[in-house]
Amino acid sequence: TIAKDALRAQPKAELHVHIEGTLEPEMVFELAEKNGIVLDYPDAGTLRQAYNFQDLQSFLNIYYQGVKVLIEADDFFELTYNYLRHAHEDGVVHTEIFFDPQSHTDRGISLAAVFEGINRALAKGQKEFGITSRLIPCFLRHLSAEAAMETLHALLPYRDFFCAVGLDSSEKGNPPSKFSEVFDKARAEGLLTVAHAGEEGPASYIWEALDLLHVARIDHGVGCESDDELCRRLAAEQMPLTVCPLSNIKLAVFDDIKGHNLKRLLDRGLCMTVSSDDPAYFGGYLLDNFIAVQTGLDLTWDEVTELARNSIRASFLSESEKLEWL
Ligand code: HPA
Ligand code: ZN
């Protein structure tokens, strides 16, 4: 096996992390107490024991409960700063962070507070750790296309603070095609696009993300494997897949790490990257995900460095910024 320090030392970009998914149980309780919110669990240990998921939806039900303790800009600051500290410890040099605006605005939290808190942490993280960041607000796909369009309009005054929009939440039954107009509008505004596709959903959702949403990356995308033509296209276009191994195991997308298709897809020439998704819920930050796939799939040093370099290549850094890490 490859030493943890060597994996840590590889410059890595984290391209798929939901900031609300970095909310550790201890912080849930700390913020609940500060904000006067009553929780369904007596303590952090008991809450953590509830992190036993059958599928994506059973996770999302708990994740949206946790989000409710985030009220003030300072809460978003603390959340984001805490994540950046973890990321830095794992050798992450750049991160592209998802957040779910609707899970906050629907509770009466202003986008101003969300952006203010997160941006303050990103600035501090860059100063203190040298870590660069981009933000990617995601539309909740279980809600309507109209709600997503309203959210896009509400986001536009903050246009300078994010580089792309994404699509997350309950995948099955909510195909990318539902959001083609919203994504058209986002691209017309000069935004890049990404979308969760092929996490639990079928390969056809990946085709839709490519052809209808014109995404620059596919989040997860592991469902492509059943479709040879799709795999050939993803390889030919070097379309990055942001794969989250520990997430996939926790949400039973694969039975165990040995059965994960990351290496098989890498062998087929796809542009594979590794991310942590919701590290507070899935049992590990980025380095833990690298260790899990390196040991579980017997990845060579060349394969591990390819994954790390792919993450830099697939990032939304400028070409000159990428060169610093390649
Ligand atoms: N999948 C879909 N939506 C999400 C996830 C995820 O893993 N995490 C937070 N929102
Ligand atoms: Zn995700």
From TrEMBL:
Its cofactor is Zn(2+). Coiled coil: none annotated. Zn(2+) binds at residues 16, 18, 196, 277. Signal peptide: none annotated. Substrate binds at residue 278. Its EC number is 3.5.4.2. Pfam families: A_deaminase (PF00962). Binds 1 zinc ion per subunit. The active site is at residue 199. SUPFAM superfamilies: Metallo-dependent hydrolases. CDD domains: ADA (cd01320). Residues 11-326 form the Adenosine deaminase domain. It comes from the Bacteria. GO terms for biological process: adenine catabolic process; hypoxanthine salvage; nucleotide metabolic process. Catalyzes the hydrolytic deamination of adenine to hypoxanthine. Plays an important role in the purine salvage pathway and in nitrogen catabolism. This is Adenine deaminase. It comes from Halothiobacillus neapolitanus (strain ATCC 23641 / DSM 15147 / CIP 104769 / NCIMB 8539 / c2).
